[in-house]
Amino acid sequence: MLPSAPPLPDCLINSYSINTSIKPERVYKKDDPEYGRPLKGSRTEQRGLAAQAHIQQEVKYLCEIIRSMGRQLDDSSTSIYEITFKQLFDFYTNISNKLVGILLRARKHGYIHFSNEYEVLFQGKHDHVKITLLHMPSI
User: Fold this and answer.
1) One-character DSSP codes across the chain
2) How many angstroms separate the Cα of 104 from the Cα of each of 36, 52, 101?
3) Burial level of 97, CB count in 10 A (0-12/13-18/19+)?
4) How far apart (Å, rounded) are the C-alpha atoms in residues 127 and 97?
C-alpha cells in the first residue's frame, strides 16, 4: 500500500500561487460590502475600475450623440432631447457594435429613457421606439 499525502488545506486564497504560505480565507456574509468584490489593490480590481471608466465614457458619448442628433422637446424648459432607435442605430453602428448594451447601461443610471415594455431593443422590430435623453452624465 502506498503512503498517502496529507490532505491539502482548503483555506488557501489561491491554490495556483507561488506563495506557499497558508493564509486563512476570509468568510464573507452576503450583506458585507466586500462580498463579490476583488481584493483591494489587486490587478483584478484595477482592471474592473478601468473597464468601468471606459463604459462610463461610452455612455457619455452616446448621450452627446443623442443631444447632437436628436430634437429638443418643446414642451419642457429643460434640455430634454428625443431620437428614434432607428436614427440612433443607423448612425451609431458605424462607431460601435455595443449600442444596445450602452443604452441599457445609460437607462440603468437614469440618463435616458425608453418605454419599460421593451427590455431590449432590436433593429427593425423597435425602429419606432423613442429614446429620450433626460440629462447628461456629469463625468
Assistant:
1) -PPPPPPPPTT-S-TT-S-----PPPPPPTTSTTTT-PPTT-HHHHHHHHHHHHHHHHHHHHHHHHHHHSEE-TT-SS--EEEEHHHHHHHHTTT-S-HHHHHHHHHHTTSEE--TT-SS--TTTTTT-EEEE------
2) 22, 14, 5
3) exposed
4) 16
CA-based nearest residue to 24, from 39, 11, 36 = 11
The whole-angstrom separation of Cα 87 and Cα 66 is: 10
Residue at grid coordinates 429620450: 132
Instruction: Indicate the pTM of the whole model.
Output: 0.70
| Per-residue pLDDT reduced to its tens digit, 55-104 | 999 999 999 999 999 888 876 667 889 999 999 998 887 767 788 899 99
Answer whether 70's CB lies under 8 Å from 83's CB: yes
Cell readout for 108 is 440603468
